[in-house]
Amino acid sequence: MGPRPSRRRILTTAGATTPETGVAVSWSEIGQTAVDERFLNRELSWLAFNERVLQLATEPGIPLLERAKFCAITSTNLDEFFQVRVAALKDQMIAGIDRPTWDGRTPAQQLAAISEWVPGMIERLDDAFVDRLVPELRAAGVEIISWDDTTVDERAELDRIYMSRMFPVLTPLAVDPGHPFPYISDLALSLAINVADPETGDRRFARLKIPDIFPRLIKCSPGRFVPAEQVIGAKLDRLFVGMVVESWAAFRVSRNGDLTVEEEEADDLLEAVEMELRRRRFNSAVRLEVAFDIGEELLELLVRELDLSHDDVTVHRSPLDLSCLFELMSLDRPDLKDEAWSPVTAGRIAAADEGDRPIFDVVRHRAVMLHHPYESFSSSVEEFIGQAADDPKVQSIKMTLYRAGGDSAIIRSLMKAADRGKQVAVLVEIKARFDEATNVQWAKQLERAGVHVVYGMVGLKTHSKVVLVVRDDGDQLRRYCHIGTGNYNSKTARIYEDIGVITCDPDIGADCAQLFNHLTGYSRAHDYKTLLVAPRDLRRQLIDLIEHEASFGTEGEIVMKCNSIADEEVAEALYAASNAGVRIELLVRGICCLRAGVPGMSENIRVRSILGRYLEHSRIYRFKNGNVVVNGRLPGAVTNEIHLIGSADLMPRNLNRRVEVLVPIEHERHRAWLDQAIEFQLADGIVCWELQPDNRWERMGPTDTFEPHAQERMYRWTVEQQTPVAH
Fold first, then answer.
1. Which end of the chain is less crowded, N or C, counting CB atoms within 10 A of the terminal residue's CB?
2. Which pairing describes strands 368-372 and 496-503: parallel, antiparallel, or unpaired?
3. How confident is the model over 655-703, as pLDDT tens digits?
4. Cα(648)–Cα(536) distance, integer angstroms
5. Residue 25's pLDDT band (cuts 50, 70, 90)
6. Would you state the pLDDT for residue 7?
7. Element (H or E) spanning 678, and its range?
8. 597 vs 39, 47, 214, 269, CA distance in Å?
9. Planar angle of CA 285, 289, 292, nearest 5 degrees
């Protein structure tokens, strides 16, 4: 990519530094005014999480293309952070809301802290890519080069590609009295261009959008790639014939990603969401990304026309939008990637398949627990729903869909089931952020196929992962249920770690039937026999379990594995349990707003974060002393311990504004599986970070090796468990 240029700072960093030895970012002095030191700020905790992701891009024990992937993930994570979190804080300030969060920071203080942190993160991302990855990839035969570094033959090839594939679709937009400043769409990569008329001396600004219909990284020779914007920038004279191109630079805009739907006022929620999706394209800009070499004139024009300030600008040495690095994962270079781990089919399902028996026969004997992506999603969950669609004994299928993805075997099975005369009802959550358009299209297709579609609930998002199948088994009608921690999405099921259970437990089936009556009709949910359901009772029930564990003092133990902990009431209950002597182990991938290891407050709480090739996504809640009645029964009756899995993280949005479901796991073998998964993570010293009492996340273990880390040990152990058995 050429020599390292100097960076002209538009934003300055104060603190937020990361030592080479690990992520050690502290926010205790950033944006601090009347801060409650008992809690950590949600937004800053998220930034610390993204720092942990970024560090994986620098660790020599990870294959090069996987490190490039972590650069891409860091970049896309930041996009969403600005679209959602920063945008929300800006909206609060515009509305005059200065109410502090539970850590004591006002919206203005949070934005100030973010503006201090983010530039340093961008620098670390640039360093990871430009100064480390690019040279190492070059040495391995994969080069991302600038136009200036191309050979004569490569320029000829790029010229051919440009004229045949790129030039016909490029549309420069000039700005002059007859052409106002064009609308810049969200996350679109563009070129800002200054051109001059050599005859009149008139100077004009033009914007050129880089279409995403061709690859971002253009192959110019084997193993060598040039970013599309550089190819186009080198040939701007072909677009501005007779003009002088004085300067150009890449830029990109992030816009507010909020979808505001007045649900109480909407006669048709589907129509209201579709209208808001059209409006969202024109939401206000919240961030401007620019290349380091942008000229002052172009920068000032962009800032002014987008109604931003210089505090909203981030400057990059790397190509803007490093999600383009995902394209490198298609290269046939297994030596630069993680070893492939082929998912296995759960042993009992494999045995049934070999015996030409349906999954229902297996589940009727005993519930099946599944652990993705170690165990195959397609041969279990997709097969379960596919068999339900084909089976003449199945009378109805009901399920929730939050994120189904772009190509869904499950959707096709549901439409097939409806076509065969089965009763099929699906709650499609059309308010799932950034999947609204996809879900709207799925909802319409399902309706056309004869499926009964519900578009979510007014005032709530349905985030639960539940399938209910009613089957005539001859002796009686049985309810077969799948309840999981992850979405019914075949793509994410290959890269997200999730757990689910397929069961015909009559109490769970009755609860699921009641849940769907509540979701699709006007039934008010009564007490559930087994399920813990938000927003109805879940927070209260979890706090009851925490407080019950606290009554055992030093004999108590709590383990929670989830994506985020940011609920004040839950945090206070955990602090109280810690002070009572309870050992508390928290495995939190992302946001954690409670502090760990602080004497007199949380000295018995340890918080760890596991990051690796899979995104840790499952939620597991384990309480050692489970001899307590939950929903009228003893979930821990077999071994005393309580194990819960489900969709709910410990955040206000999950506990207050979403329909979430947790289900107790009661079979001894399934509990042992969950215990093993937990123990692998608690014992990991390879891909683990630990939250320190001074609020730093400290990298544990070596960075030059990734073996055997918790996820690898889990995969190897899973394979060992899959000897097919009769039941």
1. C
2. antiparallel
3. 999 999 999 999 999 999 999 999 999 998 778 999 999 999 999 877 6
4. 13
5. very low
6. 33
7. helix 668-682
8. 13, 21, 51, 47
9. 155
pLDDT interval class at 271 (50, 70, 90): low
Q: Name every residue whose Cβ is closer than 8 Å to that of residue 29 and which is 6 or more positions away in sequence.
A: 15
Rounded to 5 degrees, φ, ψ at 110 are -65, -40
pLDDT of residue 453: 93
CA Rg, the chain, in Å?
27
Tokens of 183: 């609308």
Rounded to whole angstroms, how far apart are CA atoms 467 and 397? 7
User: Catalytic: 463?
Assistant: yes
- 543: nearest Cα among 512, 580, 511, 568: 568
What is the pLDDT at residue 406? 79
Residue in the structure block whose two tokens are 């219909």: 213
Report angle CA 545, 654, 528 to the nearest 5 degrees.
Answer: 55
- 658-664 and 642-646: which strand pairing? antiparallel
Max Cα-Cα span within the chain: 91
Q: What is the mean pLDDT of the chain?
A: 89
Q: Which of 468, 475, 381, 382 is nearest to 422 (CA)?
A: 468
Helix (H) or strand (E) holding 440: helix 436-448
Are the beta carbons of 50 and 23 closer than 8 angstroms? no
Greater confidence (423 vs 5) lies with 423
Which contacts of 635-638 are long-range, i.e. CB under 8 A and separated by 24 or more positions?
635/530, 635/664, 635/666, 637/666, 638/666, 638/667, 638/668, 638/671
Q: Which of 11-20, 419-428, 615-624 has the lowest mean pLDDT?
A: 11-20
Taking each helix axis from N to C terminus, what angle separates 568-579 and 538-550, rounded to the nearest 10 degrees? Answer: 10
In the chain, count of helices (H) and strands (E)? 20, 27
Q: What is the 3-state secondary structure (H, E, C) of 163-219?
A: HHHHHHHCCEEEEECCECCCCCCCCCEEEEEEEECCCCCCEEEEEEECCCCCCCEEE
Average pLDDT over residues 98-110: 92
Question: Among 3-17, 344-358, 484-498, where is mean pLDDT lowest?
Answer: 3-17
The pTM assigned to this predicted structure is 0.90
Counting beta carbons within 10 angstroms of the beta carbon of residue 549, is it exposed (0 to 12), middle (13 to 18) or buried (19 or more)? buried
Task: List, in sequence order, every beta strand (DSSP E) within 422-493.
Answer: 423-428, 452-454, 461-462, 466-472, 477-484
How far apart, in whole angstroms, are the C-alpha atoms of residue 40 and residue 593?
Answer: 4
Round to whole Å and give the CA distance between 99 and 113: 16
Which residues is 481 bridged to in the sheet? 468, 503
Note the helical H segments in 223-295. Answer: 228-234, 269-280
Residue 73 CA to residue 12 CA, distance in Å, equals: 24
Would you state the structure tokens that stand for residue 169, as one six-digit string? Answer: 């679709």
At residue 273, the pLDDT reads 61
pLDDT at 278: 58
Tokens of 270: 């589907």
Nearest to 112 by CA among 252, 315, 320, 309: 309
Among the ranges given (264-278, 401-415, 639-653), the one the predictor scored with the smallest mean pLDDT = 264-278
Amino acid at position 679, single letter? E
Domains, the chain: 42-336 (3.30.1840.10), 347-520 (3.30.870.10), 532-720 (3.30.870.10)
Q: Please write the tens of the pLDDT for every residue from 150-198.
A: 999 999 999 999 999 999 999 999 887 767 888 899 999 999 999 999 9
More confident residue, 612 or 617: 617
Distances (CA, A) of 259 to 64, 279, 453, 475: 38, 9, 21, 49
- Alpha carbon distance 407, 531 (integer Å): 31
